[in-house]
Every structure is written in C-alpha cells, then in structure tokens.
C-alpha cells in the first residue's frame, strides 16, 4: 500500500471526532462504507425506542401529550443548526417524495404570472422527477427536465420552481448552493433543494445561502434508522403563503377542533399531513442528540481526508484495472468516492461485501463508497482499501457467485 498503517493510526490519534465512533453500534468484522444509503445505528437508539415502547405500554394514549405529538417540530429544531436553519423553520415529517409534492403545490399555489413549469434534474435520484411528474399530472402544470450537465440559466424561462439536489447521488458532485439559489431567484423562480446526500455529510447554510425551501432524509448520513421520517425546511418569511396540497388534520390550525373546513396552521406545522410514528421519531431523536454536538467544519475536513485517503491507497489499482475514478475534486465533492467499471462494478462490490466491506452499486457500472466521519476511523478506510486491493489482485470478483443480482442492490 502506498500509505502506511502507522501513518493512518497517527491520524486517528489526532482526529477531533474520533470519540463519536464509540457511540455507534457497528457489527464486528464490518467496514461500513454505505452510510450514504442507510446510516449506522447510534447506541442510544435502542434505549430510546425501548423507552417509547414502555411509554406506549404504560401511558397508552396519554403518550401523545408526552412528546409524541410535538416530535415533528421538536426534532426539526434539533436538526435546524445542522443545516443552517433557525428554530421553527424545519419540520421532521413524512418522506422526501411527499415533502417535494407538498412544496411544489405550496409554491405553485402562489401563482406567478406566466410561470407554470416545474423543472427537475436529469440524472437525479429518480423519485424527485417521478413525484414532480405526478404533481404535474394532477395540477396541469408542465414538467420539464434539465438535461444532465445542462446549463441551468438556459432552462428557466417559464419555470416556476426548480428541484435540485445539492449533492448528486451517483457522482457525489456538490453544487454551490448560494450562487444557484441566487440564479434561480434572479430569474423569478423558486428552488427546492434536496439535501438527501448533503445533510449530515457536510456543513450546510440554508439561511446564509438565501434558500427558502428544502427537503432531505434522515436515514442516510443522519443515522435516523430505516424509514426514519424526512425533513422539510421553509424559511420563516415564506411560511404563510397558502395551502400545501396534502392538507391533512395534523397541518390544520387546530387539529383537535375537528372543524369541517381546512385552515392551515400558521407555522411550519402546516407542512404536516397525518399521524406519525412515535417509535420512528424516538430512534431519530437519539441520533440528533449526537448530531447537535458535532463540529460540522471538522466533519467536512475529515470527510474529505477520508475520501482522499481511500483513493490514494488505490490509485495504482485503478490504473491497472481500468477503473474510472469519477470522484469530484474536493471543493465539488459530497462525502463519497465514485468509481466506474461498467463490466465488473457489480461483482467487485459483491466480492467486497463478502469480505465485510459494504459499499453499494448503482447502474450503470457505478461503485459508491460513502464516508461517514462519525462512524469511521482512518484505519477503517485503510483496511477497506486493503480489501479492495486484494479483491482486485486475487481476481476474486471473477467468481460467478458475485455476478448474480439480488432484488436490492
Ligand atoms: C435517498 C433519496 C431520496 C429518498 O426519497 P424518500 O421519499 O425519502 O424515499 C430522494 N431524493 C434523493 C436525491 C435521494 O438521494
């Protein structure tokens, strides 16, 4: 290996975030580089969920007045500093897909003259485009795609709202939030930022960038657990502009008045829909308690250092095996390494998983390795690279068992 084990151990000794790893329950013998798909489990989650089960058993319906009902806003306030938002600007609710639908309807409902189109991004995680198309079918708005790599400024005519990811899920490429937000606003349109691959991966300054609307999930970098509720951000100046279209009782101004007609709540709770899972919120809250102690600048520095270390350890292997390293340069990188081998990518990932090194694979040919600075040490990264080297040098990926496709990849 081009980098010595001693040198990475020294880095671990100097790492200001090193202690966080002890707060996560990671299985023995696993090197987990897939925290960008499903984050690891905080040790505190088990107790938190257990306590909520006890509360359900002992308090029954009284639990709703003991923290369950307020969870979307309480957790939103815990999350707000992690993404550069203020108290009262974030709701933890539903999933990204539904939250995009709500924001599309909320923004288009404000009706700007001559602007009907929704622009979503070619090459983005598909649900963002699918739900924009679904919204347009029911509302009659026009849906368009920004071609992958296209110049945004040239596609904003007649556009009311743009849906963009801050970090692309495939390539890991990071957009400049401040300049893109300004560009869209200067064209008279609105932008919904999707933070699925940036929240918990790098520092975000929604307020500082002038962002008005954003969504993101908590089960990836934020360790909320499988199916953990997503979040929705609306700047405080823009929370009183009409209905969101999924107008359910929890978003009503007085949900327990049981009035016949809908009146939206005056604050961020307007973006709720219906009853949420107290158990899911308990696990996520345990994680957000940890996240509220994280220095996001230190997190960013460690994330970039880890992804660079992995690539440095393997650059000769990439050359000899014709693996294309498409990881963006540091200033344009999320928190992942992206490698392309259209012939063997799938099998290489499977061979690594068999060795306990968990990354993931996305068509066509893309191997993704996510670097979660709270759960990984530099030595883990070095060890994962060592396994990768052995899989390639021994030709392990050629074994036919690694070429069989499972349902979830
Ligand atoms: C993971 C991800 C989603 C997931 O959407 P859900 O509705 O929460 O399942 C959406 N958008 C992007 C960009 C993602 O990476």
From TrEMBL:
It catalyses: L-kynurenine + H2O = anthranilate + L-alanine + H(+); 3-hydroxy-L-kynurenine + H2O = 3-hydroxyanthranilate + L-alanine + H(+). The keyword Cytoplasm does not apply. GO terms for molecular function: kynureninase activity; pyridoxal phosphate binding. Pathway: Amino-acid degradation; L-kynurenine degradation; L-alanine and anthranilate from L-kynurenine: step 1/1; Cofactor biosynthesis; NAD(+) biosynthesis; quinolinate from L-kynurenine: step 2/3. The modification N6-(pyridoxal phosphate)lysine is found at residue 220. InterPro entries: Kynureninase (IPR010111), PyrdxlP-dep_Trfase (IPR015424), PyrdxlP-dep_Trfase_major (IPR015421), PyrdxlP-dep_Trfase_small (IPR015422). The keyword Hydrolase applies. Keywords: Hydrolase, Pyridine nucleotide biosynthesis, Pyridoxal phosphate. Its cofactor is pyridoxal 5'-phosphate. It comes from the Bacteria. It holds the Pfam family KYNU_C. Pyridoxal 5'-phosphate binds at residues 96-97, 125-128, 194, 197, 219, 249, 275. GO terms for cellular component: cytoplasm. HAMAP family: Kynureninase. Belongs to the kynureninase family. Homodimer. This is Kynureninase. It comes from Halomonas campaniensis. The gene is kynU.
């Amino acid at each position: 290996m081009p980098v010595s084990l001693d040198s990475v151990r020294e880095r671990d000794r100097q790492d200001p975030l090193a202690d966080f790893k002890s707060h996560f329950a990671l299985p023995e013998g696993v090197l987990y580089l897939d925290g960008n798909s499903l984050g690891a489990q905080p040790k505190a989650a088990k107790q938190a969920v257990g306590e909520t089960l006890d509360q359900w058993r002992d308090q029954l319906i009284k639990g709703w007045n003991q923290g369950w009902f307020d969870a979307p806003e309480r957790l939103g306030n815990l999350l707000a500093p992690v993404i550069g938002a203020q108290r009262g600007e974030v709701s933890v609710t539903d999933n990204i897909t539904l939250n995009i639908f709500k924001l599309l309807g909320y923004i288009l409902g404000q009706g700007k003259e001559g602007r009907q189109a929704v622009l979503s991004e070619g090459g983005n995680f598909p649900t963002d485009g699918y739900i924009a198309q679904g919204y347009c079918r029911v509302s009659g708005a026009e849906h368009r795609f920004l071609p992958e790599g296209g110049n945004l400024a040239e596609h904003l005519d007649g556009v009311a709202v743009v849906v963009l990811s801050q970090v692309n899920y495939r390539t890991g490429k990071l957009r400049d939030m401040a300049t893109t937000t300004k560009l869209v606003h200067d064209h008279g349109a609105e932008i919904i930022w999707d933070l699925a691959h940036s929240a918990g991966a790098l520092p975000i300054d929604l307020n500082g960038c002038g962002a008005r609307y954003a969504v993101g999930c908590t089960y990836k970098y934020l360790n909320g657990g499988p199916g953990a509720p997503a979040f929705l951000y609306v700047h405080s100046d823009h929370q009183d502009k009409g209905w969101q279209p999924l107008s359910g009782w929890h978003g009503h101004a007085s949900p327990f008045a049981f009035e016949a007609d809908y009146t939206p709540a005056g604050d961020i709770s307007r973006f709720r829909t219906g009853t949420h899972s107290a158990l899911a919120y308990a696990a996520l809250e345990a994680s957000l308690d940890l996240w509220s102690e994280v220095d996001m600048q230190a997190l960013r520095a460690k994330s970039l250092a880890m992804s660079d270390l992995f690539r440095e350890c393997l650059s000769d292997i990439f050359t000899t095996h014709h693996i294309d390293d498409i990881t963006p340069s540091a200033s344009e990188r999320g928190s992942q390494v992206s490698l392309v081998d259209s012939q063997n990518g799938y099998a290489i990932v499977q061979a690594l998983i068999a060795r306990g090194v968990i990354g993931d694979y996305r068509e066509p040919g893309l191997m993704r390795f996510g670097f979660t600075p709270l759960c990984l040490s530099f030595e883990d990264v070095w060890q994962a690279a060592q396994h990768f080297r052995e899989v390639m040098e021994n030709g392990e990926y050629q074994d036919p068992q690694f070429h069989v496709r499972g349902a979830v990849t």
